[in-house]
Amino acid sequence: MQDTRFDTKALVLSLLGLVALWWAAAWVGDDPSVLPSPAQVWRIFVGEVAQGELQVHFAATLLRVAAAFTLAMGLGVVIGFVMGMNATINRWFSTWLVVLLNVPALVVIVLCYLWIGLNEVAAITAVALNKTAMVAVSIREGVQALDPRLRDMARVFRMHRVAHLRHVVLPQLWPYIAASTRNGLAIIWKIVLVVEFLGRSNGIGFQIHLYFQLFETGFVLAYALSFVVFMLVIEFTLLRMMEVRATRWRHSAA
User: Fold this and answer.
1) Angle, nearest 10°, between helix axes 120-144 and 53-85?
2) Per-residue pLDDT reduced to its tens digit, 202-234
3) Which 8-state DSSP code applies to residue 139?
4) What are the pLDDT digits (tens) for 132-177?
């Protein structure tokens, strides 16, 4: 409990320090068109919420993030697990992962729009493809790092495959799954903004594109920070709980 209180206090103080730094920079610059103050951005945020605009675009982005994240994690976990368990498959297809990891996200987005069209399927597919390879690599490394002694123990006790997966494999893979989840959410929502910036008619990225053309820095910050705050809440609640669960078995063993 003491460590948790310390983390919370450090988090609050760190965020307050960041806001203070922003406020000082805005005061020194004294040009709201370049860097508005936190109070000015807050007024814009409240105004957009009152009109209902921010909620509509926030929801559109959130749905795309959820769909792409689910698809990328599902495919990535399966691909990574299979490649980690089968050396032959890993030898033949590891190069494919390297290629996918090094293809720029912008190229994948443009190709999906060209091949599929300017629609939701293309948008979600482009985002998921950009993340699937990262998840697969992480899970593959996790499977290859499994303790062979635990596997041999399960074999000696003739443990059922489902029980073996639940009590031996998954506890060891949890840290890799948790890391993939954290990195996935952080990367996917940024790629979603690019997808919306280039070819969608709603969402946070679309609004940022709109206000970029109008040179409205305050509106750009208001929309961008709305999702940043949401991701911080997810990070320090859901993902932190996953991290605790992922490492619980290590503390129990110690």
Assistant:
1) 40
2) 899 999 999 999 999 999 999 999 988 888 888
3) H
4) 999 999 999 888 887 777 666 767 667 767 776 666 777 778 888 8
Containing H/E element for 76? helix 53-85
pTM of the entire predicted model: 0.83
- Residue pair 109/194 in contact (Cβ under 8 Å)? The answer is yes
Judge whether 138 and 176 are in contact, CB under 8 Å.
Answer: yes
How many CB atoms are closer than 10 A to CB 116?
15
Domains of the chain and CATH, by start: 53-253 (1.10.3720.10)
Provide the Cα torsion 153, 156, 160, 164; round to 10°: 10
CB proximity list for 77: less than 8 A, separation 6 or greater: 135, 136, 139, 177, 180
∠ CA 129-130-136, nearest 5°, is 75
